[in-house]
Amino acid sequence: MLSRWLLALSLFAWLSGSACARPPEPEPPDQGIFVTVANPITSASVNQIRETVTRAVQRNPLKKIVFDFNPGGKEAATPDFGPCLDLARYIKSLRGEKNVLTIAFLKNKVTRHTVLPVLACDELVMAPDAAIGAVSANPGTSPDKVDVVNYESFVLPGQAPLVLKMLDSKVEVLKGERNNAAWYIDARKETEAAREGVVIADKKPVLRAGELGLYRATDALKFQLSKATLASRQQVETRYNMPPGSHREDVLMDRNRVCWRLIVQGDVNGGLQASLKRQLERATRAGANLLILQLQLESGGGNTVIARDIAEQLRALRTPDGQAVMTVAYIPFNAGDAATFIALGCNEIVISQIRRMGKRRCDSRTSEPVAGHLRSLLSPPWRKSAPAEK
Fold first, then answer.
1. Which one is predicted more confidently, 27 or 94?
2. Which helix (H) or strand (E) covers residue 177, if one does?
3. Can you spell out the DSSP letters for 322-340?
4. Omega cis (within 30) before 71
5. Contact, 310 vs 338, CB < 8 A?
6. Of 380, 340, 388, which Cα lies nearest the Cα of 74?
7. For the residues 89-95, what does the mean pLDDT come to?
8. pLDDT tens, residue by residue, 280-337
9. C-alpha span between 225 and 209 (Å, rounded)
10. Three-class DSSP category at 137
């Protein structure tokens, strides 16, 4: 009888505990930021990145930094080795000095010496259409020995031949195994690798001589150069448990806001483009770093090619000392096609209540070029829109 009573009490306690059990609390996000790396990389842009990271660290201790190497989702390539080496060394120092995990995100192709700071990051993630490699501008010539030493210093020894293949088309890469882990070797150093304990079961090259190494996302995963295939900065933010919205960069950081409003009206043509360029230059020379563009362009579609050029100019806008400028498109009335293009070139879009953007009806001859232009303008992931208050 007593044993039955104890069994009943045990069962009741177990059922009560199960009913009251709570799902585990999600881990709090790790403080981190996204930093877009200019293309091409210059000494000025490297200094700007240092300042951006320094300001961010002063506000909150960082655990993670994602470096986006494809501004606007476009291909990136830097011919100048020096600034890329400086940036690579700085990125590498963040792990040792500040215990910050650095992540490289590639949305498109990255070649030439822009590859170097990518390799300096602790981890690499790539969009499905991204690629990395083809460092050398002269595939048929032997790479500079100093370049080789620097490139190989940023990767694990078992991956060094994969990187050397990016610089030297004559390299043939074999896959072996050492200490139960994949190990890649330069076929010309097979004997030396065997002495170091690398076992090669299959002598068939995984990469043949003749072309520079240019690795797509699937290749980078296979060779363990990349950690994951992620299509967007939002997906990177989620994977690395960063604060919601951190994929949008704070363009101005802790700088004092100096705001100018520019009214853009009239037909979108070459004259308006030249006039707006003068206004932008005057504002930035006067110290403006926050520009509100009031787009009063609802009459007619306008020239979408010129509008796209204006949008590209807005995306590349900098102050005279090379710092980023925040641009906000304000649409008080309905926005035609050209105004939509211009608005998409800004960091943020504010739309008056009950307004609309875009009117175009395209036939088959014009729809794809226009759609392509819109896709390219929509690629910057820090853009957001909001309705204006009444």
1. 94
2. strand 173-178
3. S-B-EEEEEESS-B-HHHH
4. no
5. no
6. 380
7. 95
8. 999 999 999 999 999 987 655 578 889 989 998 998 888 887 778 999 999 887 767 7
9. 20
10. coil
